[in-house]
Amino acid sequence: MLSPLTVLKRYWGYESFRPLQREIIDAVLAGNDVLGILPTGGGKSITYQVPALLKDGITIVVSPLIALMNDQVQSLKKKGIPAAAIHAGQSLKKRSEILHKAYRKEIKLLYVSPERFVLSDHPWYENLPVDLIAIDEAHCISQWGHDFRPAYKKLSLLREAFPEVPVIALTATATPHVKQDIINTLKFREGYKVFETSVYKENLSISVVSSSWWYEHLLAVLKNLKSGSALVYARSRTKTEELASWLRKYGVNAEFYHAGLKWEERKEKQDKWLKGEVPVMVCTTAFGMGIDKPDVRIVMHIDLPEDPEAYLQEIGRAGRDRKHSYAILYATQNARIDLLRKINNIPDLDTVRKIYDYLCSHLNISYGEGQDKAFIFNPEKFIQQFNVNPFTLLESLKILNIAGYIEQEDEIKTNAYIRITASREELYKFRVEHPKWDRLIDTLVRLNPGIMDRQVALKLGVLAKGLSTSTEAINEALIRLHKYGIVEYIPPKQGTMLVFLKDRVPSSQLTFPVEELRRIYSLKKKRAKWMIHFAYGLNNCRMQHLATYFNPQDASEKCNKCDNCLNNVSLAKKKILNLLKTVRRPMTAAQIAGQLIPMNEQVITTALEQLVASNSLKILKNRYFSI
To answer: How far apart are CA 297 and CA 285, in angstroms?
Structure first.
């Protein structure tokens, strides 16, 4: 039998395991149930993928995001590892083909969305040759967690179907309450193991900036970025666009990213950032999930994250190459107001009923229909059509999800499909009369065998590359050919995957778990208030405070690297004098603070006042310089 390290070297090319990976793998191979809590970028997938290759049967991997499932499957296939995914975005035929391969052990890893275990009338998985079950993003199991998904609660069905098969549950963040919820829900057997890395990151310094000149501080930090890359998180799409434009105006090579962009635009922006062509990405939380870029030097937040779980995950994207990195949170007065408004603006149940009716109308779902049907849902179009507040829509969908009426899977893009409907004679005549279409039609036929006889899935990117143009231009051209009657063209669809779990009923008949909703939103408010205290009221070590939230036993020492730990005016004075002598030009307080992160800007302000009072520095037009 191959060893785990041999498998790691052969398929991933790594010479050694990361912290706790080997311990988790050994426990799984010994037949234990395992809860693994590893940081973002800590290599969670390795801990079930390696054992999967050492076992005879297949490994079922439950994952909440279709995009991540598809990325994992493609990555494994490139390594020569047979893998597949089944989810609501596929046809019944496609799912059946994949399951037949799984029954024959032609697949080693089968990725499945949690809803597939809830929606089916029969347990399709019972006769599969399963010898390992992996639950990714396991915190979604818990109502006490920050990202509860009701379908995860049903995963105890897997334990009942495979009582002797080891289960590995993985997450990046879990409080003590969430850990116990995971263990209980998945019915871990006696002798289960829990492996958890420390919240402390030795190479990460956290700081909070609350000054009114935060934007100048942000610019100074990013202009001082000599190597590596940066992530700047904002809550709204508009903010990402405006801030990226402002940064470019002042010489910072920055891009913006949010879920409202077309799929191709997002892919292009992501690739540029990953390649280092654009070092600074200003983005919503839609960016970053599943991306493993080792040289992120700085993670910034210009809005307060809603909870410590999200905050820890996002700052965890910094410094994966183990070089020193920084997390900066801009705690302006507006940031506090925005978060408080958001957590207190929960739609009432009558509003949720109205959104349900709008949804059914928008998606053409009649009464008594809809169960187990999946739809590509475009929130922007919906908001425009019904004049709905975006936050009201988002929260209403969450409530309908918790109540068991719909499941919002994630962002998805469907294929484009095409068939040439013109006869060969008609096609020839069209090309003679319209020679400008010749090259496109030639390329279409050459790249898509069978296009004259049947509908084929079309890869717009491949076609665009072959014709040295953009996917948008190709899409527009094919729509025109469709209007000419030459082809039957179905453009790709992009949006959120919505699955209706029950047939449509009159909205007056909707029932809601009121107590459960009250508890969930009460916890949400507590987590938001924790973030407000962290940003505005904390005087102690920030890393230690984070550790206390997630694992009190891990919170024994100060980090000695955050702004609160470096609350030392004498040290700040020395650093300021050294900086101004080195740069040999006047600087504002914000510019100085931007180059002395993670030192607290209030400490720097005090140090500057003392240096001016002692005649060690001069100030002219709000700029400080050495004498």
So the answer is: 18
Q: In 3D, which of 207, 201, 203 has the Cα closest to residue 297?
A: 203
Rounded to whole angstroms, how far apart are CA atoms 593 and 153? 47
29 and 142 in a single domain? The answer is yes
pLDDT recorded at residue 148: 81
226 and 289 share a domain? Answer: yes
Q: Are residues 20 and 167 in the same domain?
A: yes
With 0-12 / 13-18 / 19 or more C-beta atoms within 10 angstroms meaning exposed / middle / buried, residue 101 is middle
**Residues 560-594, buried b or exposed e (16+ Cβ, 10 A)?**
ebbbbbbeebeebbebbeebbeeeeebbbbbbbbb
What pLDDT band is residue 239 in, cutting at 50, 70 and 90?
very high
Q: What is the DSSP letter of 336?
A: H
Tokens of 266: 């997002």
Residues 451 and 399 in one domain: no
Query: Do both 554 and 611 map to the same domain?
Result: no
Beta carbons of 84 and 60 less than 8 angstroms apart: no
* Whether residue 301 is found in the same domain as residue 244: yes
Same domain, 101 and 217: no
In sign, the C-alpha dihedral spanning 606, 607, 613, 618 is: negative
Q: What pTM, to 2 d.p., does this model score?
A: 0.84
Domain count, the chain: 5
For residue range 24-77, what is the model confidence (pLDDT) as tens digits?
999 999 999 999 999 877 789 999 999 999 999 999 999 988 778 888 998 999
User: Residue 17 sits in a domain of what CATH number?
Assistant: 3.40.50.300
